[in-house]
Specification:
mainly alpha, globular
Length: 129
């Protein structure tokens, strides 16, 4: 293994652990309650899954994404899916950023959160290659 391959391997491990940990947090009462509250009003439609279902689905997606980064045969498709996932969940983060009094520490300011999301997307792409 050369230095680039070692760096990618380490990045995959770190991202996998982070996504799995974030996914597991969706099933812990207090964080899950905050995540349910972060679902923007536009996504609280009768035809949409409930906020509880959305939190469960996104938690499972994060766990699957973390595991997929470690599985070579599905790594590329996992990377694509995680990029789309990160784009799809950003409205909840933007909603929290607009309501810092309601969400406290979960309400990172919009632009730093946006920049962090872009960095995470780039890291996922690098890990998936």
């Amino acid at each position: 293994m050369d230095a680039v391959e070692i760096a990618q391997w380490a990045l995959r491990i770190v991202l996998a652990l982070a996504f799995i940990a974030m996914g597991v947090s969706h099933f812990v009462a207090a964080p899950a309650r905050t995540m349910r509250a972060m679902i923007p009003p536009a996504l609280r439609q009768k035809w949409m899954p409930s906020p509880s279902a959305l939190v469960t689905i996104t938690g499972l997606c994060e766990i699957a994404g973390g595991l997929g980064l470690l599985w070579e045969s599905v790594r590329l498709i996992t990377g694509i899916a995680l990029v789309l996932f990160l784009i799809a969940v950003f409205p909840a983060n933007a909603y929290a950023a607009k309501n810092p009094d309601r969400f406290g520490k979960a309400a990172l300011p919009f632009w730093p959160r946006f920049a962090g999301q872009l960095v995470l997307i780039v890291l996922v792409v690098l890990a998936a290659l």
